[in-house]
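Posting for a labmate who doesn't have an account.
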Amino acid sequence: MLFLSHKSVLVLFLSGFLLFSSTARAENEVLYGKGLFWKIEKDGRKPSYLLGTMHVSDKRVLKMKDEVKPYLTKSKILYKEISETYREYREYVNMRIRDDDRTLDQDLSEESFEKAVELLKLIEVEEDDLKTFELWYVYELLEGVPWYRGIDKDKDTFEEDDEPVLDSQLGSMAYDNDVKVQALESTRERALLLWDGPAQMYLEAIERALLDTDVIENIKERREQQIQNYLNRDTKKMYNDLEERLKDEPKEIYDIEKVAMLDQRNLNMVNGMTQGLIKGNSFTAVGALHLPGEEGILNILVNRGYTVSRMDCDEDEKSSFCPNQDM
């Protein structure tokens, strides 16, 4: 069996962190809906820093590493979502193979299966491999396609990015500067959030995803729009756009993606980074959609007595979270 590369599996695995939002709120009520880079302070300790990332290697997004380099390289520890080790990779490979003696082409209509094959060839998934994947993993792949490859705006095809994604580059920067790197969760912990979902639920979700006759073109547009939202540091727009995509999904899908994959993981991430916050001078980098919202990391920190201040305010911005700005 031909496996996806170590890099591509990790990127696809991370992709779900960007795709789903939290509780439905009016657009003007998204807490902490602007800004990607934040200072975290409490009780006179040395400040720590929190960066919302995007799990892509688009060169425009990668510029963020230069902005945060002075802070990351002087930190004692970098917290990331997942450790990029071969052990973690093997764990994820083992969990994604079906063991029920069925194959995807038996579960999907002929038209849907052919479309899935066409779509997933964009990320180098071969037909014979696709047949063997668990339904939850096929669902993840379909959702993750937009985040795996960069797009040349002058061409009609997907082209593989030459560089590692932003999160990986931040990890390399930390290692190069003797900054300890620690994962906030394991691949198994994250996969288990999806693994036990009913097969029929995922099958129906896959069929819905493949109903779009222009799915490949729409994926390109979706990826570019999300990149623009990120470059604008507009997590409110990202939050509301993705919430809009979830609103018509069945409750079972919403509960997995909202309650388990976002809200609960936000809480787990804060708990994981707490020791570094107590000691001070830590740096945390997680997907940008983990930051905003009532159940987001920033609001959890504020509710625990921390002060959060935006580090990436524009000169003309007025916000209570921009320390050098007037209200």
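Reply:
Got it, the structure tokens are right above this. The first strand starts at residue 37 and ends at 41.
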